[in-house]
Amino acid sequence: MAVGFSVMVAPTAFAAVPGSGRLAFAVFRGKDKVGEHVMRFSRSGSALLVSTEVEMRVRLGPIPVFRYAHTATERWQGDNFTSLSTRTDTNGKVEQVTAEASGSGVAIEGPDGRLTAPASAAPLTHWNAAALERPLFNPQLGKIMKVRTAQAGRETVSLADGGSIPATRWTIRGEAEIDNWYDSAGAWAGLRGKLEDGSTMIYRRL
Predict the structure, then answer these.
(1) Band of the pLDDT at 12, cuts 50, 70, 90?
(2) Are 127 and 205 in contact (CB under 8 A)?
(3) Which one of 114, 162, 169, 173 has the fewest CB atoms closer than 10 angstroms to its CB?
(4) Cα torsion at 81, 129, 125, 36 (round to 10°)?
(5) How many CB atoms are closer than 10 A to CB 62?
(6) What is the mean pLDDT of the chain?
(7) pLDDT higher than 50, residue 7
(8) Count of other CB atoms within 10 angstroms of residue 17
(9) Residue 73, Cα to own-chain centre: how many angstroms?
(10) pLDDT at 9 over 60
(11) What pTM, to 2 d.p., does this model score?
């Protein structure tokens, strides 16, 4: 994985946690709001627990044509990823992933079976820019991702209330095409990603 640096050093896991202990985003597909993504952070000494809830629904007129629900429980010890458990329901199809880190690697069990990722691997859950320097795995499918990441400099990113803030953009390219933004404190501030149907998904922080 090639990682480029330009302006700021990626924050540590704890530095990426907002002071409120909560991150929330309005999710848009094109110009239409389709859901919300909420993360809650709690600390106990050097341990960090991250809980995620995502709900999305796409309608054709009054009729829902796409439903998506995702929950995740993620644990870190200092700057070290330790475990993850996720459940995803896409139009009634349920997928579950568990991951457990040890000195010899990250044992991942997903819909397609078991695998062992490098010990430094982390899930692509977006909130922690420091994780983008590591091998990444998909938290919904339990697969190692073939992507390149790079820091792309300082820009402004739009918020859900119509305002904007300065942020640092990171790019993810390869089997995924995603841009993430992080504010001056290191907290996740926005996302733009290309979906399989060619449309664009945008996260605006609430």
Answers:
(1) low
(2) no
(3) 162
(4) 140
(5) 5
(6) 93
(7) no
(8) 25
(9) 12
(10) no
(11) 0.90
Residue 6: which of 172, 169, 127 has the closest Cα? 169
Token pair recorded at residue 160: 């859900």
Res 122: pLDDT: 98
Residue 185 has pLDDT above 60, yes or no: yes
CA 90, 81, 185 angle in degrees (round to 5)?
90
Separation CA 116–CA 105 (nearest Å): 6
Helices (H) and strands (E) in the chain, counts: 0, 15
Closest Cα to residue 180, out of 147, 141, 146?
Answer: 147
Amino acid 90 reads T
pLDDT digit string, tens, across residues 120-149: 999 999 999 999 999 999 999 999 999 999
Residue 131 is classified by DSSP as G
Cβ contact 88:140 at 8 Å: yes
Q: Are 28 and 52 in contact (CB under 8 A)?
A: no
Q: How far apart are CA 43 and CA 138, in angstroms?
A: 24
Length of the chain (residues): 206
